[in-house]
Amino acid sequence: MSRTTTALALALTASLAACHRAPPPAPSHDVRAQAYDAFYIWPGVRPPDDIHPRTLYLLDGEIRRGGPPRFTRLRMGTPRLPGVELWLVVRANRLDWDAANEAAIFEDLKKWQAAGNRVAGLQVDFDSSARGLENYRRFLADLRKRLPRPFRLSITGLMDWSAHGDPQTLTALRPIIDEVVIQTYQGRTTIPGYTRWFDQMAPFPIPFRVALAENSEWHAPTSLTRQPQFKGYIVFLLRHSTRN
After folding, report:
1. pTM here?
2. What's the rounded Cα separation, in Å, for the pair 211 and 64?
3. 22 and 37 Cβ atoms separated by less than 8 Å
4. Would you say 143 and 153 are in contact if contact means Cβ atoms under 8 Å apart?
5. 176 CB neighbour count, 10 Å cutoff
6. Domain locations along the chain
7. Tens digit of pLDDT for each residue in 75-93?
8. Which of 63, 67, 123, 193 is deepest in the core (most CB within 10 A)?
9. In this structure, which topology does domain 3-236 adopt according to CATH?
10. Integer distance in angstroms from the first to the last C-alpha of the chain?
11. Helix (H, G, I), strand (E, B) or coil at 143
12. Residue 1 CB coordination number (10 Å)
């Protein structure tokens, strides 16, 4: 097991030993990880000792631009993380996946499950433009057909889908995917003007969660709490140079 994987397992085990339901996040202020219970964790990021995760999204690997499509694993170990729901994330810059790529990704899902983890499924982290949603929908429909049961399928999404995404395409995505995680940040900073995007999400047909960057500024839009498809927040944990 690598040093990074060992640190992740030890830190999360310590947090889960004292696990309790995190208090509801404040409607505004900086995003403090301790107020939430769902997190993105990228390799090399050690979670704080005082968080109490119920859901984790772990970056498992990437399919990058250039050359033939190839799945590059970023996690070498598969620690057992009891008491949490896990999603394995694949970050992709392209959609021309081949059978070998998919087989490697599906193998990882089964490996984490065999290690005693409660694996919810696969998340595809791909920045599809609103104009490219129909092509993305076709890719996801094909992927879903081959995704082993009972694993679920999650995707990331951009805020402008609410305004510029074709309603028919969004509706057609609903039976293919289980959730969309709307990204609200670029780097470490919340994207300005986010409130107006969420104000346009009343007809959004897919269950969605909202991803926030740790320590970024967030003022929860009033309209968000009234969205029937809104399922909560996920905090993207950052690497800290001085963390005990």
Report:
1. 0.87
2. 23
3. yes
4. yes
5. 18
6. 3-236
7. 888 999 999 999 999 999 9
8. 123
9. TIM Barrel (3.20.20)
10. 21
11. helix
12. 12
